[in-house]
Amino acid sequence: MTDTDHRPAADPATGTVAAEDTTAPDTTVSAPVVDLNADLGEGFGRWRLTDDEALLSVVTSANVACGYHGGDPATMRRVCEGAAAHGVAIGAQVSYRDLAGFGRRTMDVPPDELAAEVAYQIGALQVFARAAGSAVRYVKPHGALYNRCVHDDEQARAVVEGVRLAGPGLPVLGLPGSRLHAAAREAGLPVVAEAFADRAYTAAGTLVPRREPGAVVHDPDLVVARALGLARDRRVVSADGTPVEVAARSLCLHGDTPGAAALARRVRAALEAAGVRLGAFA
């Protein structure tokens, strides 16, 4: 069982980190506490991309698409209801307005416009989360916006402004050391670091772009091994073989890859067998 119903104030034990700390490993217990998050609700209309129901039985946090790269009102409502039923924390996965490109095309959006669009997406999801008896508990950018906010101060600040407008105090989930986290700290928002077991890393600790060969790890055994390394040792081996320190509270499991639900179950089982405690950070 997960520990998603225990939601104390932000401190190192929860993984929801104060503005001046991006990693905050759990030092109050003997075993690490790790959140498993996945991108859900990314289909729309009659088309479904992810096995949302299966993944909701595995993860502790759900990054719910808010209609800009995937999702629609009915899908958002359905996923929020499912998350609430499973005790899974609901997060808003905000994106550039790019339904045709699945939010993976870089766009130059004026900061004030981007801030408004981020706030709009969070607000829309909040309606369905509240109707399901829950709430939006954190925000995570998607795709090109996520990658842009790793290094782009202007876009990162715009995303943070959108978060601030929609829900003051909402934690921001993202890559440790990113400009997004720096902007969130400047604004006084909690930040939570995440890592990816199924994505290749550069020696600098950033993600290998999806357009490059080997950017996505498909070998299930390797994904499980990397998840264990990230959870227990706070490190991963980069694409060039360099060990990289990645102190993350949350592990992302992509839901749009073949066999995603089965792989997620394997990862969870391996973590639990290794003594890793699972629980949402928010």
UniProtKB/TrEMBL annotation:
Molecular function as annotated in GO: 5-oxoprolinase (ATP-hydrolyzing) activity; ATP binding
CDD domains: LamB_YcsF_like (cd10787)
Region (Disordered): 1-25
Residue ranges of coiled coil: none
Chemical reaction(s) catalysed: 5-oxo-L-proline + ATP + 2 H2O = L-glutamate + ADP + phosphate + H(+)
Keyword ATP-binding attached: yes
Any matching Pfam family: LamB_YcsF
E.C. no: 3.5.2.9
Keyword terms: ATP-binding, Hydrolase, Nucleotide-binding
First-level EC class: hydrolase
GO process terms (BP): carbohydrate metabolic process
Family: Belongs to the LamB/PxpA family.
Function: Catalyzes the cleavage of 5-oxoproline to form L-glutamate coupled to the hydrolysis of ATP to ADP and inorganic phosphate.
Description of how the protein assembles with itself and partners: Forms a complex composed of PxpA, PxpB and PxpC.
Full protein name: 5-oxoprolinase subunit A
Organism encoding this protein: Streptantibioticus cattleyicolor (strain ATCC 35852 / DSM 46488 / JCM 4925 / NBRC 14057 / NRRL 8057) (Streptomyces cattleya)
